[in-house]
Amino acid sequence: MHLGDTLFEQHQARLQRARQACVERACWSPFPELPARYPEAAQAQARGSAAFQAHLGQDGASRAFALSQPGTTGTLGAEVSPYTGKPLGVVYPQADIDVLFDAAQKAIPSWAEATIEQRLGVLMEVVERLYADHLFELTHAVMHTAGQSYNMAYAGSGVNALDRAIEALVYAEQAMQAVTPHARWERQFGSSTIALDKTYRLVPRGVAVCFTCASFPTWNAWPSMMASLATGNAVIVKPHPATILPMAISVRVFRTVIKQAGFDPNLVTLAPDTVQDPIGKRLVQHSKTAIVDFTGSVAFGQWIERNAYPALAFTETAGCNTVVLESVDDLDAVLRSLATTMCMFSAQMCTSPQNIYIPALGVRTSQGLVPFDSVARQLADAVQRLTADPKKAAMILATIQSPQTLAMLQQMRAQGAAHGQVLLEPKPYVHPEFPDARTSTPLMLQIDTSQRALYGEERFGPVSFVIRCGDGADALAQATNDARTCGGLTAFLYSTDEDFIARAERAYAHAGAQLTTNLTGAMPLNFAAAYSDYHVTGLNPAGNAALTSLAFVASRFCIAQSRRPSRAIVASKP
Amino acid sequence: MHLGDTLFEQHQARLQRARQACVERACWSPFPELPARYPEAAQAQARGSAAFQAHLGQDGASRAFALSQPGTTGTLGAEVSPYTGKPLGVVYPQADIDVLFDAAQKAIPSWAEATIEQRLGVLMEVVERLYADHLFELTHAVMHTAGQSYNMAYAGSGVNALDRAIEALVYAEQAMQAVTPHARWERQFGSSTIALDKTYRLVPRGVAVCFTCASFPTWNAWPSMMASLATGNAVIVKPHPATILPMAISVRVFRTVIKQAGFDPNLVTLAPDTVQDPIGKRLVQHSKTAIVDFTGSVAFGQWIERNAYPALAFTETAGCNTVVLESVDDLDAVLRSLATTMCMFSAQMCTSPQNIYIPALGVRTSQGLVPFDSVARQLADAVQRLTADPKKAAMILATIQSPQTLAMLQQMRAQGAAHGQVLLEPKPYVHPEFPDARTSTPLMLQIDTSQRALYGEERFGPVSFVIRCGDGADALAQATNDARTCGGLTAFLYSTDEDFIARAERAYAHAGAQLTTNLTGAMPLNFAAAYSDYHVTGLNPAGNAALTSLAFVASRFCIAQSRRPSRAIVASKP
User: Fold this and answer.
1) Residue in A185, A537, A559 closest to B558 by CB
2) Assembly ipTM
3) How far is CA A150 from the centre of its chain?
């Protein structure tokens, strides 16, 4: 029995449960959401921490990340931990791109000729090995590159990302299983019968290039890689130069499992680059590139969408996520929820709210109308309360991934003060465990709609705009216009008016933002659950592909058929 | 009950049978393949002929095709029958493009908010009305624009095209039904439970532009239109200026049925143009274009693939379809089948073979080796026999759609004589019913692989190249290289060597051509059966989309979700 088949059987129950989850879209995960619930958590966390430490350079000497892939021409790597401000000291193989493409192409045929089950078995095993052997190592790697908190790195970049990976496998399987492998076809032509045996082969597109982003590398990368690999393609991973380690660890796990299953490990390789000498455009326009998956900036994402041809492009970029605060029952609960979500990972998530529209006359509540200025002030106070205590701030804000974000904050603060009002000044807080961490509390600006130049694009990081607009209808029109024209993944609505909610649901659906209405309480408003929440609609500039729908997988392979006279007898009437 | 639901119930049995056919890919059609088997055939054919005649201008005066769509600024139309050489005298509404886009956009919301079943019900009714009320009218319209024979216009452009339309509906339904409309999701966050009701809406992309070709308009157009409409989009049809009438009739039927079902008929409109003043590029780059379906030339198809962004593009262009003649049991049977297929509609099908590779040493047969020259000669003789009798020629060759094809034939003849050998001279034959018909028997050239400039691109029309190459392996390498680099939809292989066949199946699958092996007998080799044969792989320049796979439909709509706290009680642990 092929090892792929053994692995498929081994993971069949989990995959079956995942299929059900994708149909029903109710809550499910095979993994514990909290680090403490991980099996033998203390030992596993200690092992993960040690594994991470073992990657790092010592005493100023860098340490080479071992990756036995072909075409290595040197080493590179200049990651700096947002927590310590110090270089990680890890260097990675710098790759001759042409060698990687050749190796990837060579690896495809035997992988493509494996059965769907064999490929799924191998890839489900990758998921299991990432979970069982590398999760806390990855948690630390994400912390010290992306700058996430430990808990978010575990949950958001760990188990939730693995759930998204399994989800992609489910949809890939569904798209492939829709094609019967064989058929017998028989028809009369005049007086004779023609009987044909037909064979339908799934042919992969070729080599996929997967770009991963600085702040949330695994969450988009794993499902993209799984979608390409399950359908028979190879993947070259191009990590953001600031956040290579989580992807290097991932690539090595993919390679190891693939090799152990008897396939060519060059199905998955790493092509890191530096800020000084980027290779992204060369990868996209390489003659052998068949698929591009991209997570990152709007500018480069749109360049890819325009220039990837003839490669397919799947993008997730960014946008202006909006809030409409029209009317509420419990204003305090709403503001607490909003404040929490605005602070999560210092708003360095593609789902973080940025533009908060409040009617000029204020917000209707069960206690009466609360004026605009008062709502704005209370929201700023709620944010301030969350971030005043460094220990709490550390858990929720974590760090600022890029020094450029701090520069942007200063620039926004100056412009906001000139054209509006600074509701909350950003300032560093001292992280209790990492005193040198790059941190900032959020900047909040109060502004009116004449200043759209300030908020009419994504300002990636902890800045939000409380925007004075007309009435509720105007708030909705402004907010959905932001989503439609600037892009927007998520949207948040508070209203006690069912007619208004119905209009907003339609308007946001057409603007292409995933809407959350009247949610308060313990769940972060922008939490996106695998198997249940679709991430990105494809309807606005925030990206052209959803995690995960059939459209995300169905074009990653083609169908080639062959037909010939059936070996059974071809009858001929007398 | 909504009329859409009534229609869905009415057509449910047919749709269910079509779903089964798409899964099993065995032979099925709800329609009779031959005109004589049509219910009350004689009367129906007489009615169809009369309906066609009623479209035509009389005594030099043109007749306006009535289409009550908005934005009409004038009339145009200059179709000439390839059978009579005379203008049809039909003029069509010339449209203000912006008005059509605005009307299409306005028509979308109520259509998009109808249920999947309602849309499918309406579109299955369109299929039924085209079949029951317009099939022979369309048959004549296709004959006198595309120049097909009566039987092909009925079968290929009639019932088979309707089958492809139903097939597209099946896949659109499958992709849409994969998205549950509602879910209830519940999870613990800390000590509290969050329960959300989630709604998933299917949001159409917007306005699709469907380009239809001169020689085979309905076969690609109907399934493309169905794929876009079923998923909630509107369609603007841009017919080739030489072949407007079949699409004008189609558009009117779509509009009538849609309107009767209570939707806005501007979901489907016609945007004809002239050769002198083409509007294709303006349509593709219109800011409101969301989807482009294209059938036609490689050059414009590739321009669309490059320039449609941000619209999605689905293309079927053309290519060099190849034959490899390696070894056979019964050479006569093989050559008869090849000759028939080479003559079908004067090779004006995107599936017609063009490049015939024969090993220099000849073809192994059960009677021994037959030398190259002899095989070439016998093939030319077989073609000659099929076309010598004008009555038989009329049935199989039909007419030449475009006068440019005759010019191309002369040019190819001259170049072929200079660089190779003319196996068969093209010459007009006199059509028994239409003495003024534009006709030509096929041109066949014998040539070697040094003359690839001649055959290394599609020569649309009745020209074929018998190419002397090395051995069987070389024949296969040359042929698959043609498909890979020049495009190729179909491929035909004759070999008695199972190892060679297995290699060829793999090689053609990677080159992206649909392969038919060792077929002889009554079926045209290039016959593509709806529900069974995938048309175009997307793996080579012959097009990027298959009729029909999930990939053809899945990205025509997006998924927008909204979620809010469940009306059921949100529990909170003490």
Assistant:
1) A537
2) 0.97
3) 18
CB contact under 8 A, B200 and A309: no
- Write out residues 13-42 of B within 8 Å (CB-CB) of A: 23-27
Task: Measure in Å the smallest separation between the Cα of B130 and chain A Cα atoms.
Answer: 24
How many CB atoms within 10 Å of residue B39?
8
- Give the pLDDT of residue A573: 42
State the CB neighbour count (10 A cutoff) for residue B227.
30
Neighbours of B266 (CB within 10 A): 25
Q: How far apart are CA B461 and CA A303, in angstroms?
A: 40
pTM: 0.97
Sign of CA dihedral B392, B397, B403, B408: negative
- Which residue in A476, A559, A572, A573 has the most chain B C-beta atoms within 10 A of its own C-beta, making it the best mutation to test that interface? A559
Query: What are the distances in angstroms from CA A206 to CA A106, A315, A423, B292, B570?
Result: 10, 18, 52, 25, 48
The closest CB to that of B522, out of A189, A203, A305, belongs to A189
CB < 8 Å from B in window 539-568 of A: 539, 544, 546, 549-551, 554-555, 558-565
Distance separating alpha carbons of residues B143 and B153, to the nearest angstrom? 6
- A contact test, residue of B179, B185, B485 with most A CBs within 10 A: B185
Find where tokens 């980027």 sit.
A278
CB contact under 8 A, B203 and A537: yes
- CA dist B432 and A561 (Å) reads 39
Count Cβ atoms below 10 Å from residue A88 Cβ, excluding itself.
Answer: 23
Percent of chain B with pLDDT strictly greater than 90: 97
Q: How many residues does chain A have?
A: 574
Place of tokens 């000759």: B339
pLDDT digits (tens, 9 = 90+) for B338-394: 999 999 999 999 999 999 999 999 999 999 999 999 999 999 999 999 999 999 999
Distance CA B486, CA B492 (A): 16
- With beta carbons less than 8 A apart as the criterion, state whether B173 and B230 touch: yes
| Contact indicator for B471, B439 with CB cutoff of 8 Å | no
pLDDT band at A533 (very low <50, low <70, confident <90, very high): very high
